[in-house]
Input
Amino acid sequence: MKAAETEYEKTIFYAKKQKEAGIITEEQYKELEAAAKAHKEEQKGTADDTYYGVLNSVKKNLGETSKYINIETGEIKKELAGMGRGYRQESQGDVGKYKDGCF
Output
């Protein structure tokens, strides 16, 4: 979205320069401004559609697991982070035991 904003600002900058130099009229400037704004909004809409499309696809493919992941940062949420701390499964007899031997 930053690129769309930068492109818009450049277009407006150069259109103003052309208007000030008498190359284009006020009416032509307003038309350029409106077209630049519409293009910026279209680019932002496309970026949003892509972002949310990917986000929804990830959530769908993760299924129940998605509730344990902060989708914005990719980090494991707090409530799940401590569940595996110290847990080991070195042999069948140790399944479910923590390092201190407790279940």
